[in-house]
Amino acid sequence: MLAKPYPTRSTFPRAIRAMLRMQGVMNASHFMTVPLLALHMSVTLHFSSTALATVMATNLLSAQTLPLMAGAIADRFGSHRMITLGLWLRALGFLGFGLTDTVASWICFAFTAGSGVACYEAGLYGVFGRQPKDTLSALFASNNQMLNTGTAIGPLIGGLAGLFDARLAFAGSAILFALLGGVAFQLKPGLSEMSGRSSVIASLRATATHWGLWRLIAVSLPWFFLFPQLYVAFPLYAGRMAGSYAASAVYVVNGVIGLLFMLSARRWLVRMNPVKATIGAYLAAAVAFASVAAMDGVGWFLLFIAGYTVIETILLPAFETMTASLAVDGSQGTFFGALSAVGALGGAAGYYAGSWLVMNATPLQTWITFGSVGAVGFAAATILLPRARQVSLQ
Fold first, then answer.
1. 13-391, what's its fold?
2. For the whole model, what pTM was predicted?
């Protein structure tokens, strides 16, 4: 039997293609700054590990808990305004990072930037989730490809700015986010944006009572614990071995390998079974994280980053595809918001645990702990995901 053709980016509506391109520029702007945040706080501003983790956790919690309500609002009133507001809030947050130097002010601007992420992603993924189900795998694979393009470009620009002053990178990100907000303001909502809206209460009720979604959320929690290490444990560990350039190299490798893997394996990523892919990726994560304890030197660590990137590039689209497939029509933004909000609990724990382990524990303790979390994810996916698929996953 002939293979079923899969959608390509050229088949997406014009507004969707514009949003995909926006994702690339947005992530480039984001990663101009992220490689410098932890090092700037610890080396230049002399924040303690607790203060550093609090800033990062504040950003994460606001970015990942607020989408639940932001998604419900977007489902009711439309996503266009939420996307624009989110980009402008991020601009304000990154501008604040460049202008202030106290823990309290950084926490405030971290909350502002995180709120911007919440509004932007609630609107964007609400629109993505409303697309035809047979295009979802291709859409989220293309989305991940554009994100990885930005991840490859952003750290290079940020690293050059960091040679002079990290605050230049913060200002550059603020300007880009502000400009993107202007572009988003000009986008016209499509028909899928205007139809099938649900009230805020109806969307929240549909989300809260969907057990397939909650099984998927339980499976995703170990990954939400491990994923923030890209922003805390990885740059701090690499920076301790070889300085700030190694910290930026983490993101360059992450972006380049992610982009190359997306380009070379895109057909497989579009057609993959998200359940089987998640189980396999978690097993690979358990082995990869634990193996860092036996590695010596920044070269080997960057090789681990390459492996981690492949795992990330499989897991994120798989979770997004399964969430969109489970979502009740008219409540797509709320479903993505629920995944993000509950995932914030694992992410906040990851920030505190990651920063503490890298600064206080031995490498063996650090990486065996991370590997164990990956093993928990493998066990949870093996037990729970087939049940989630029986509920409504195709």
1. Growth Hormone; Chain: A; (1.20.1250)
2. 0.71
